[in-house]
Amino acid sequence: MFIQDWASLVVNSLQNLWVGFLSTLASIVGALIVLIIGLIVAAGIASLVEKIVTLVKLDKLLVSMGLQEYFDRAGLRLNSGRFFHKIVYWFLVIVFLLAATDILGFYSLSNFLRDVLLYIPNVIVAVLIMLAALIIGHFLRDTVVASVKGARLHGAGFLGSLTWWAVVVFGLLAALSQLGIAVVIVNALVTGFIAMLALAFGLAFGLGGKDHAAQVLSKFREHTH
Hints:
Elements: H1 2-55, H2 58-64, H3 68-73, H4 80-104, H5 107-150, H6 156-179, H7 183-208, H8 210-224
Helix pairs in contact: 1-4, 4-5, 5-6, 6-7
């Protein structure tokens, strides 16, 4: 009787072990199939996105807005199609990898991948903010330089560079805030930066318009007397 109970216990243990092994193997195979399909789908969709971006000639538009020189300075090649290809590819890979980890029951890794997926849009928005800052900075710099030269004043290059740096630094701080990097410090820097610009422009306007204001007041006194 004891031998029969022992044999039954061993058989049940082996059966449970075998069932658990088959279940784990099925989960692994299923996760691998999902991941392989995900890699194929991600590569296909990413290539399609790259072709679409190339067809709309986004690079030509960015070059016309004056961004080529900034990429050249950074030693980077302007290729927006490739950029969106990588973004879409890795986004889809992480999505399918998340599905695979859920199948395997790796819930800690799944939570981490979800956080990564939620963070990717912030990266895209931050990149767009910096591109917008460079475009606006380039436009305002040319506008300021042309205006100062048109008024026959000195320091056109300096004022143009100052305008460009002001816009770009503000865009950088906004991008860092979007990424959630040192938000408190960035907010404090933004506030201080805006106050500094207001003070600088106020002083420049006050000092630059001092003589004109004196002439206006002098003419006003003459008319009143």
